[in-house]
Structures are given as structure tokens and as C-alpha cells.
Design a protein that fits this description.
CATH architecture of the largest domain: 2-Layer Sandwich
Number of strands: 8
Shape: globular
Strand content: 15-25%
Strand order of the largest sheet: 5-4-3-8-7-6
Order of helices and strands: HHHHEEHHEEEHHHEEEH
Helix content: 40-55%
């Protein structure tokens, strides 16, 4: 299985805990798991991972009912998953409220500390941030979203704090468009078939035809620029990072406040710094 089921956004949650809404056009996580008929597939493990991921982007403890509603997994199964995770030290509980424990960080640490891409990129991100005075990030495409795997923060330009492990939609981010633009045609078609293009701001491109044209331009010019499509007041520019085979493995970007930095300045001053860093990083990965 290439992609583990992911937690649905809040506006896609089923109305009744553990049961999908009749009006919902998308399957719940539980339905995605149950649809996998491979006899080697471990349903209980998939449910446990789904329960862990249900805590994503939540700043408050979760109840069994909350997690059941988010995932579509029956409450009894959620209760068993949480009990197991608690016994293993990954989850803490106070009455009926559950929260993650620091031990969860060990699940991602092995990837961050052993993957050449993340290990090699941090010095470049730090240098970009020092040179330009802006935050820079490295991300990969994961489950149709941008997943931040390394970051150097010079200042906070978004209302939501970004850290390693943060996720954002791919279609309205410069990082995402850099990677979407270099997908094989069949994979890009599958992406558009799966993902609903929702407006994050009044400037977000939600027309598939228009977005395909933009991605063609990204492929041609070698970089992507976002102008207040993800969040008002935020601009960003990104370039692809290629591996030994020439395939795009990740993307590197810089974000800045629109009131301070124009698109022309990004292309004139930021782009050469990003391109140089991406080129050097690509050489290291070979």
C-alpha cells in the first residue's frame, strides 16, 4: 500500500460518530481501511495509525467520540487502540480526554535523522534564511499534501505556525506546485481526480484547467510563485530538488509577507539563492 489513509478535514467529517453522513461523497478513513482486501494487510495496525493521526493539528485533548467521528472507526475499536497506545507510552489519558506523549516523536525521528535529504538540507536552509532574512522550508509530496521535512524559521509569516511535520494543501502552495508540476501525466490526473480544489482565500486558483496551465508554466520556468492563495498577506517562491535520476524528490521555498516583498523582488533576489541551494543539494544527493 503506497498511502496510508489520512484524517479528513473538519468540513468533511461525518455527522454521526463512527457513521458517514448520507451527503458525504468521500469515504471515511474506516471505509478506506476496510476496502483494502489484501490478506496481508493488518487492519488493526492501520486503525492504530489512523487514531494517532487523528490528533494532528489539534491543540486540545481528544475524546473517543471525537476520534471516532474524525476517522469513522467504531468507538469500541478506537477505545482499544487508545488503550494499547497508552500502555506503550504514546498516549496519555485524563478521565476521557486523550493526548499524545513525547514518545510519539521517536516515530519520526528515525526518518529525520537518517534520510540524506533531510540531513543534508538543514545547512542550506539555514544559509538561505540568513542570506534573505526570511523563513525557508523543504517539503515532500505525501498523501496529496505538502509535508514539511526541514525548516529554518527567520520570522513567522503565517497565522498558523509551521514546523517539521506540518502539512498544507499542495495545489495552493509554491512547494506543492513545484512537485505537482513534475508528476507523470497519469499521476497528475489521479491527483486531480482525488483532490477537491477548495478556496483558501479569494485568490486561490480552484479551476483545474487554470491550475494545469500554471503547472505547465512551472515545468517550463523551473519555479513556482504563490501570491496570497494560501493565506492573505503571504507570498512564496519554490524550486524543485532533484535526485540522482533527475526526478524531483522535494521542493525548497522561501515565504515572505506580501507587504514587504514583491513578486518581482522574489524572482530577482530570492530565486537565484534558491536555485543555487537546490542545485548544490541535488549534487549531494547523487
Amino acid at each position: 500500500m503506497n498511502n496510508l489513509p489520512k484524517v479528513l478535514p473538519q468540513d468533511e467529517l461525518p455527522d454521526d460518530a463512527g457513521e458517514p453522513s448520507a451527503a458525504s461523497a468521500e469515504p471515511t478513513i474506516a471505509q478506506q481501511i476496510d476496502a483494502l482486501a489484501d490478506p496481508s494487510f493488518m487492519t488493526s495496525l492501520a486503525r492504530g495509525i489512523a487514531v494517532l493521526r487523528a490528533f494532528s493539528d489539534s491543540r486540545k485533548p481528544q475524546t473517543i467520540a471525537n476520534i471516532s467521528q474524525k476517522t469513522g472507526i467504531p468507538r469500541a475499536a478506537v477505545r482499544r487502540c487508545l488503550y494499547t497506545l497508552q500502555q506503550l507510552g504514546y498516549v496519555d489519558a485524563e478521565l476521557n480526554n486523550f493526548s499524545l506523549r513525547p514518545k510519539v516523536l521517536t516515530l519520526g525521528y528515525s526518518y529525520l535523522s537518517s534520510t540524506p535529504l533531510t540531513v543534508s538540507s538543514q545547512p542550506y536552509l539555514n544559509n538561505i534564511s540568513r542570506t534573505l532574512g526570511e523563513s525557508s522550508s523543504l517539503a515532500v509530496l505525501e498523501d496529496d499534501e505538502v509535508l514539511y521535512v526541514a525548516r529554518a524559521a527567520a520570522s513567522r509569516v503565517m497565522s498558523v505556525a509551521l514546523n517539521t511535520g506540518s502539512r498544507l494543501p499542495a495545489y495552493c502552495t509554491s512547494l506543492g506546485r513545484c512537485m505537482l508540476a513534475h508528476l507523470p501525466p497519469a499521476e497528475l490526473d489521479a491527483y486531480f481526480a482525488r483532490v477537491k480544489l477548495r478556496p483558501m482565500t479569494a485568490r486561490t486558483v480552484t479551476s483545474q484547467a487554470r491550475l494545469r496551465d500554471i503547472l505547465a508554466g512551472v515545468r517550463e520556468h523551473g519555479y513556482a510563485v504563490i501570491d496570497e492563495e494560501l493565506e492573505l498577506g503571504l507570498r512564496s517562491i519554490a524550486v524543485p530538488v532533484r535526485g540522482a535520476s533527475g526526478a524531483v524528490l522535494a521542493a525548497l521555498n522561501v515565504g515572505a509577507q506580501a507587504a514587504r516583498v514583491s513578486i518581482e523582488q522574489m524572482e530577482r533576489e530570492f530565486l537565484p539563492v534558491l536555485q543555487r541551494s537546490a542545485g548544490e543539494l541535488s549534487v549531494l544527493l547523487r
